[in-house]
């Protein structure tokens, strides 16, 4: 079977990044944890700030439980942040008022991880795709049907499939239906929460190329969450690395992959096949993390990566590193590490 990296390359940089479409500033989300006798709060997202520009693809990567899906749900309005602000085209939509929800629903849509549970099994494909239009627009039934035909053609499905139900489709076909539904309101932002992780590897490549083609043709901005770094490198213009609810590093894709500046990013890339680590060569030293990530209910002080970091110092254990600019070979990477310069110098890329 082909892997995502074997798929035909998608030039996601054909649409230039311009204005900020979606912006998060110090977003925080807490969830109750513990027991009734010993209640507590777990920080799923802790002070994340990021910008998504028009026409770009921003990849989000990190270990399970680092807060990626919670961040995605806040960005589409499914979760309300406990602190921080969310802006869509410069308009603050943090409060989640009715007008805020309507604005986000029309402009920011989500593609879910599991195509087997995200589609209503009692609805036909036509109803699934046209339901958002029926709920938010004045389009007639015939206009909605015409739009559904356009969208099915766009995602590579035959219009005569509109009368079928989700159980009559494969996983890849169901995800195409989910993509068509997300596009029904002509959004300018798609938030993709691991949209290929539940699919076979060969089907993953097809869906990734479909999303890249849609991004190029429609100019839609995409926030793409994934575990697989090869998938992210294939489609993303920029990549943000999350660890335990915070951003560890963010930068242009090639620069981040070729010169990872945060020890955690270096460890992630070290665990991947050599062929996707860099275009120029390989990291000089393989990094194997010890232990499990700390519990979000009881995170360590200072830098949250410090218990697993081989460069940890007293400063790392007591002071939270701010996300700061680090110029690297003509590109600027933002990294939250007190010792990023030393991390780069101590883990150079070796050319073949």
Report on this model:
The protein is of the alpha/beta class and 352 residues long. It is 32% helix and 24% strand. The chain contains 12 helices and 14 strands. The protein has helices spanning 68-75, 98-107, 125-136, 141-154, 171-183, 201-218, 229-235, 253-258, 263-270, 274-277, 314-318, 340-345, and strands at residues 20-34, 39-53, 57-61, 83-88, 91-92, 108-111, 189-193, 221-225, 238-243, 246-252, 282-283, 324-328, 331-335, 349-350. The strands form 3 sheets. Strands 6-7-8-3-9-10-13-12 form an 8-stranded mixed sheet, sandwiched between helices. Helix 5 (171-183) runs parallel beside helix 6. The radius of gyration is 21 Å and the shape is globular. The two termini are 27 Å apart.
Describe the structure concisely:
This protein is an alpha/beta fold and 352 residues long. The chain has helices spanning 68-75, 98-107, 125-136, 141-154, 171-183, 201-218, 229-235, 253-258, 263-270, 274-277, 314-318, 340-345; strands at residues 20-34, 39-53, 57-61, 83-88, 91-92, 108-111, 189-193, 221-225, 238-243, 246-252, 282-283, 324-328, 331-335, 349-350.
Keywords:
about 350 residues; disordered N terminus; single chain; about 30% helix; about 25% strand; eight-stranded mixed sheet; four-stranded antiparallel sheet; 12 helices; alpha/beta
Main sheet characteristics: 8 strands, mixed
Strand elements, count: 14
Class by helix and strand content?
Answer: alpha/beta
The portion of residues assigned to helices is 25-40%
Strand order of the largest sheet: 6-7-8-3-9-10-13-12
Low-pLDDT regions: 1-17
Intertermini distance: 27 Å
Q: What portion of the residues fall into strands of 2 or more residues?
A: 15-25%
Shape from CA axes?
Answer: globular
Average residue pLDDT: 87
- Rg calculated over all Cα atoms: 21 Å
Secondary-structure element pattern, one letter each: EEEHEEHEHHHEHEHEEHHHEHEEHE
Number of helices: 12
């Amino acid at each position: 079977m082909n892997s995502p990296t074997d798929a035909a390359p998608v030039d996601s940089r054909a649409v230039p990044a311009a204005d900020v479409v979606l912006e998060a500033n110090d977003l925080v989300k807490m969830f109750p944890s513990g027991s009734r006798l010993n209640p507590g709060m777990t920080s799923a997202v802790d002070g994340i700030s990021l910008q998504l520009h028009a026409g770009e693809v921003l990849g989000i990567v990190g270990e399970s439980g680092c807060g990626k899906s919670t961040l995605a749900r806040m960005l589409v309005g499914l979760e309300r942040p406990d602190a921080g602000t969310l802006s869509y085209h410069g308009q603050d939509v943090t409060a989640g008022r009715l007008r805020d929800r309507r604005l986000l629903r029309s402009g920011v849509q989500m593609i879910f991880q599991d195509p087997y549970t995200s589609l209503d099994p009692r609805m036909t494909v036509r109803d699934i795709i046209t339901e958002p239009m029926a709920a938010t627009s004045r389009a007639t039934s015939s206009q909605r049907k015409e739009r559904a035909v356009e969208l099915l053609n766009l995602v590579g499905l035959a219009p005569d499939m509109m009368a079928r139900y989700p159980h009559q489709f494969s996983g890849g076909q169901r995800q195409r239906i989910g993509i068509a539904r997300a596009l029904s309101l002509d959004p300018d932002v798609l938030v993709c929460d691991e949209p290929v992780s539940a699919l076979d590897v060969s089907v993953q490549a097809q869906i990734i190329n479909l999303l890249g083609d849609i991004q190029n043709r429609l100019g839609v901005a995409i926030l793409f969450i994934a575990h697989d770094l090869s998938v992210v490198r294939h489609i993303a213009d920029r990549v943000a690395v999350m660890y335990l609810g915070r951003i560890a590093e963010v930068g242009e894709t090639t620069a981040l992959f070729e010169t990872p500046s945060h020890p955690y990013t270096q460890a992630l890339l070290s665990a991947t096949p050599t062929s996707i680590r860099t275009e120029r060569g390989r990291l000089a030293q393989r990094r194997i993390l010890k232990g499990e990530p700390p519990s979000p209910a009881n995170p360590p002080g200072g830098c949250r990566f410090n218990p697993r970091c081989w460069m940890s110092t007293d400063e790392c254990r007591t002071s939270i590193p701010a996300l700061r600019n680090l110029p690297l070979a003509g590109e600027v990477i933002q990294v939250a590490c007190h010792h990023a310069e030393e991390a780069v110098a101590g883990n150079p890329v070796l050319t073949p």
